[in-house]
Design goal:
The protein has about 950 residues and is mainly α. About 45% of the residues lie in helices and about 0% in strands. Strand 3 and strand 4 form a beta hairpin. The radius of gyration is 33 Å and the shape is elongated.
Length: about 950
Amino acid sequence: MRSRRPRVGFIPIHVACSLCTLLSGFSLSGGVVADDGADFFEAKVRPVLVEHCYACHSSQAKAVKGGLRLDSRDGMLKGGTAGPAILAGKPEESPIVQAVRYDDETTRMPPKGKLPPQAIEAIERWVTSGAVMPVASGGAGDGKSTGATAAAMPAPRYDFAKARAHWAYQPIRRQPSPIVKDAAWCRSPIDAFVLARLEAAGLSPSPEADRRTLLRRATYDLIGLPPTEAEYTSFEKDTADDAFAKVVDRLLASPRYGERWGRHWMDVARYADTKDGVLMFGDDRVRPYAYTYRDYVIRALNEDTPFNQFVREQIAADVVAPADQPWRLAAMGFLTLGRTFDNNIPDQIDDKIDTVSRGLLGLTVSCARCHDHKYDAIPTADYYSLYGVFASSEAPLELPLTAPLESVPGCVEFEKQAAAKKAEINKFLDEQYALLSETARKRVGDYLARCALAEPDPLETAIFFLSLAPDDLRPTMVARWRRYLKQHGSTDDPVFGPWAELLKLSDAELSSGAGAVIARWLERPAGVGPGQLNPLVATALRQATIRTRADVPRAYGDLIRTAYEASKARPAESWSGDDVASRAFRQVVQVVAGRESPAYFPRSQTYYQMSRGEKDAFGGKLVELDRMVVKARERAAPRAMVLHDAEALYDPRVFVRGNASSPGEPVPRRFLRILSCDEPRPFEHGSGRLDLANAIVDPSNPLTARVLVNRVWMHHLGEPLVTTPSDFGTRSNPPTHPELLDDLAARFMDEGWSLKTLHRLIVLSSTYRQSSAERPDARRVDPENRLLWRANRRRLDLEAVRDTLLALSGRLDTTMQGLPVDVLDDPKTARRTVYGLVDRQSVPAVFRAFDFASPDSSAERRPRTTVPQQALFSMNGPLVIEQAKALAARPEIAASSSTEEAVRRLYRRVFARQPDRIELTAGARFLDGAATAQASGVRSQLEPVEQLAQVLLMTNELFFVD
């Protein structure tokens, strides 16, 4: 029985307005699916308000200035004496946006200095998207008010045992199959769970789809391409009970499978081939080795790499990848291919935490960056435990090869050329590291003087500074010195105890009272322990003349610099003993030479200490190397964009209010407490990335398998079991079929974390095989089809649309892997769309029209819209026109002896079926009319058969899967 399909009528292609009527499935009104505004507010906007605004405009302010409160949406909408602060969706008219932009001299906020550009951009974006702000849940850590600041809120006392009662944290177990009335319908363990819910609601499943529909559905789901006429014929003739199972096995064995499902995963991994800094990188923003991650994903899926191994490799391939499989190193693109955020390291790490936690765990951990999570039991300390993992990981300058040089033609010669550029880069870096490290140590007195005599400068907390010379004081290093002195300025510190006490006095008090302070300290026993006085400090203070505050940092600076210079001149064995003199000398030297010193930074962090000119020069050298690689194209050997453990591991501290310049309490690198039965143990292996990966895929972790199974189910059935695939927290809706989700997750782990086994289980079920035909009786009971009483009809996504056009025209190039290509501007490019270049900063309009996932962050699912731009693409897109020409030029079509024969052959090629009588008549009439119009002088860029080919390539029958 033939499946129902939309009818199409045929008219000349040049009558564009009328042609739109052929696309009845393309609605003229489409929805826009926006990001979760509440999450964006918590991650990007609230931290800015807390840091710069709440002191004067919140419930915590001593006096709310102007009557304006910015700690709740109601407060912003109500406004103060000057009126509302926000007009949702209208940034240009919103006073808060005008104030932070400094548009009006009378309302510049904050008054002490303009916000950084990225903070202003965040506020603008938030207002534009509707100014969504979360409502307090009253749960642990939310302060009972959306206005509670991080500083004012009490430390959360999460009841983790109570929090683990949430459905997503329950242990995963195989579920007993429910008893159903129509047991004969159940082909798969899946079916009984679905049927039980249907029967409980008084519904029954839909009949099985016809064989043509079923084959087309499975083929698009598994490989993203249409079945061929031969495949239709073969399946329809195969009457064996396992005929469909053989089709599914064939599709899963196809190399096209990895390309299809690799693209799904790349949405989660926010894959792009470029950086995001157009102003910084311009035309050189292409990451020349990004494609190796895409190739890794496709190959790993085709080989059915167990998903737990897949996760380990993406987080710690530098440790777990087998030496004989270097291609697996490219898996770490999962971490390294995010945005650069203008080289803002905390934002880059936040992006990694967000991608890992939402993509693999279904938790919005990044919401705990500035304050404890308002809804889920994720304290800020847990966020910074993960922060420490990624802060302890860095990208090497020399990326490892994923294939031998000899396997790439022309590669050996190119690598010799590139080696010279790499040597130049390393030499520059070594010189800068030596210069800047030495300068930071020698200028200890100047840093101490700045801390003692000057108030903190806003630049000390800035991401960037524009030093003009190598010996300028580094604002960020000044900030570290301030923290160091605050930490060591106790009365028990043997080095800086006197410092703190002396600087409590004014110049007038010092001129007469410094001697008394020093005398009291000299009474202490000589030593390097708490409550003692370092003998070198004692000597320096005894000899110093201290009449003003400036004399204190001078005395300390002279002492520390002299000791450091002496340490370089004296042999180490002369001061390596355990006597008091040696220990005292080492203690003073360590102030500038130790790893805890504010003057210390590892070689890998040299770029962030460079002056503006040197930064530009170094960045230029890196861009030149990238440009060489891009220009060489196939002659450049593929390399993996890996991370490895930093030379100096980072000991994380909680950043107060998310401010990297205000570190608070130390925290260990460890896993989330909500996913740990007891207090989680600190990670033991280097940075902790391997420990993190192992914790994520530990069978006792109740989230990872559930999240993955839910994503796979979504792509096969059209809707997920949990409607928020990247958020399984307390704000998520419970799964529509909780027992089914658990049973699938348990089977998935028990059967070796095999994705192909999971696909097979789902696709061979009776649930999957249902018809998509409408049933008014069932719709009245379950209008959204949450109970799965039928299959969901779906429009092809961008990749399937383009690949289908190429396949039908006979031009599809099935070459696998390699450099990205231009799949849009060059209509002659015939590679599969998955190999197209993804430009993060400039996603083409056609991509956006067909709901391509934003590569800016991990995408939980693509929006689904039907908008006029899609129809206009089919009418006017060069890609469609080129494929229509190629389709009409195929030998079997070009050789048609009549208009009716041309219609039949076009239908067989495009739809793999014969046209019915109405279609044949309409098609022949169209060809005759177009030929007559052409003969009478009506111009068209397409010949009549090409016009008909284009019409067929834009029908609903082609664009939708039943």
